[in-house]
Amino acid sequence: MKDTIFLIGFMGAGKSTVAKCLEQNYGRRIVEMDEQIEAREQMPVSRIFEEKGEEYFRGLETELLKELGEEENLVVSCGGGAPLRPCNVEIMKKNGRVVFLTARPETVYERVKDSHNRPLLEKNKNVSYIEKLMEERKERYEAAADYLVPTDGRTGEEICREIMKKIQEGCR
Ligand code: S3P
Fold first, then answer.
1. Which atom of ligand 1 approaches the CA of 15 most closely?
2. Per-residue pLDDT for the chain (172 aa), expressed as one digit of tens each?
């Protein structure tokens, strides 16, 4: 069975941090979807949205996930919108475990407030907008997830240990 770990969750849920911990502690190769897409397109995500539009970006996400599905033993830090397309979720489920990292809107706000490469939040960087968008997406994140892991007030190491424990226990 293929055993890639797909980390999903809202922007600022801690996917990149946790992916790094999994790489350091468990020797998994990381793929950071946004970084990979930026390298291929030779421009930041914010410019891809601006110049080519969100649908184009979503298409790139699906293409990349199809390729990653061919590999093994990765940890993939998915873009926050990746689980919104059912075909993307299908790829994830077929090729490994899907871990949904959760965070409260206030925590997300603190984590994203100084960054400028999240076009969906750029003009709406406040707790109530984050809460609204999170609520809209919640059902789809939950439906995609094998495991749900809260991140508020916890270190990357703690989260990483919980994920590996769940995976080793084999519970879905
Ligand atoms: C998005 C999340 C971002 C990035 C893009 C769209 C989303 O990734 O893919 O800005 O729709 O939630 P992160 O979750 O890594 O910030």
1. 15
2. 679 999 999 999 999 999 999 999 988 999 999 999 999 999 999 999 999 999 999 999 999 999 999 999 999 999 999 999 999 999 999 999 999 999 999 999 999 999 998 999 999 999 999 999 999 999 999 999 999 999 999 999 999 999 999 988 875 5
Q: Tell me: domain 4-169, CATH 3.50.50.60, correct?
A: no
Ligand 1 centroid to Cα of residue 10, in Å, is: 7
pTM for the complete prediction?
A: 0.96
Q: Where are the domains of the chain?
A: 4-169
Closest-CA residue to 75 (of 101, 40, 52, 113): 101
| Ligand 1 contact, 79 CB (< 6 A) | yes
Phi, psi (degrees; rounded to nearest 5) at 138: -50, -45
Instruction: Give helix then strand counts, H and E, for the chain.
Output: 9, 5
